[in-house]
Structure formats: structure tokens, C-alpha cells
Amino acid sequence: MKKITITIVFITLIIPIFSYAQEIATLKYNGGGDWYSNPTALPNLISYCNTYLNTTIKEKPQVAEVGSSSIFQYPFIYMTGHGNVFFTKSDAQNLQDYLLSGGFLHIDDNYGMEPYLRKELVKIFPDKELKEIGKNHEIFKDKFIFKEGLPKIHEHNSKRPQAFGFFHEGRLVLLFTYESDLGDGWEDPSVHNDPKEIRDKALKMGANIINYAFKH
Question: Which of 9, 53, 132, 140 could form a disulfide with 146 if both were Cys (CB 3.0 to 4.6 A apart)?
């Protein structure tokens, strides 16, 4: 009887990060800042994107801790707050690894975060420059057109809204929105009593950001 040798090849499926169902998360960071502020913002933005961008993002955003490997499950992570931010060395390394491997972090200053944040961003990319993003960048015109760049949603001290970012190989990996307060515009209408026109601007800009993160 002829002996038949069957070679069984085990195929190891390497599931790339972000291959999960579309989910996004809020970043939980240290330092005492209110990372949990604007609780209705992301759910409303998700609903808007699912309606107008045909995304299938899970309705309830998750919470991802800054130093945890769980951040690699999400193609888009949102960070906000008013106060202090602190990244340990391992937190910063974790965020760098996440961003360079395809992740996207949107940091939305809810007013008061900026002076604390800037010194922590240096820990993530000590060799990169945080650059202001011009109004001609793709993120301002891919789905909804913002001819003047980042819109002003809430007035705090009459400063102009600015978008800053870190780039890696031409891809925007970290977006920092300052003096705009997009998250306030995403919240339930009853929270800030913003007119529909303002909320629409905020949601459209948020949709552009989500769309960019998912595309790239």
C-alpha cells in the first residue's frame, strides 16, 4: 500500500490592526484633565457619519487608555478636555507606535488644554514639528468644503481657529484643533443651545476628519 504523505500547511492569518468592525474611541489620559467631557459629542458625530458618509461605525464609542494596546483596535481616536495632560514615556511610545502603524488621533481642545498638551506632544514625536495645516489641505475639502479652513464653533477669547498636525510619509497622523471647539458643536443641541447652522458646520468638519482617518 502506497503511503501518502499529506503536508498540512497552517496558514497564520495576521490580522492587521484596524481590521475590526468600524469603531472609534475616546482617549483616556492622565494628568487630571477631564478626558470624559462632551459625552454626547462622539455618539452624535457617529450618527451623522453613518447617515451622510455611509459608514457603519458602532453607535457607542469605546474608551481607550493611552498606555494600553487596546488603542490599536481603532482607526480613529478622539481626545478632548479642558485641563492638564500628562504622558509617561511608555504612553508616548504607545501613541507613536499607534500613529506610525496607521492610526489617527484627533485632539480637540475644549479650551484650556493647549499649554499642557504642547509639551506632551514633544514626547510622542521629539523629531517632528507640529505644523499648522493650511486651508487647502484635503481634510477641509474632501467631503464638505471649508474654504477658510477650520470653522469657529465656540468663541472663547477672539482667537482664530487653527488646525495643527504631525505628518508621517505625507499622511496626517495627528490633528490638533485649537480655538474651534468642534466637540461642543457635536453635542446635543440642548447642551450649548447652538443654532443649527453652527452644529452643521461642526458635524461636517467632524465628518471630514473621520473620512480622512478611514481613507488613510
Answer: 140
Which residues make beta-bridge pairs with 171?
A: 168
Which pLDDT band, with edges at 50, 70 and 90, does 158 fall under? confident
Q: For the chain, which residues make up each domain, given as ranges?
A: 24-215
Neighbours of 101 (CB within 10 A): 13
Query: Looking at the domain 24-215, which fold is it?
Result: Rossmann fold (3.40.50)
pLDDT in tens, 70-123: 999 999 999 999 999 999 999 999 999 999 999 999 999 999 999 999 999 999
Output the pLDDT for position 5: 39
Decide if pLDDT at 9 tops 90.
no
Q: β-pairing, 162-168 with 131-132?
A: antiparallel
Q: Catalogue the long-range contacts made by 14-17 (C-beta closer than 8 Å, 24 or more residues apart).
A: 16/102, 17/72, 17/73, 17/101, 17/102, 17/103
Calculate helix-pair angle for 89-100, 114-124, nearest 10 degrees. Answer: 70
Residue 1, H or E segment: none
Write down the pTM of the prediction. 0.90
Pair 106, 134: CB distance under 8 Å:
no
Rg (CA), the chain: 19
The label of the residue with cell 502506497 reads 2
Q: 84 near 33, Cβ under 8 Å?
A: yes
Enumerate the β-bridge partners of residue 80.
108
- Alpha-carbon distance of 47 to 49, in angstroms, equals 6
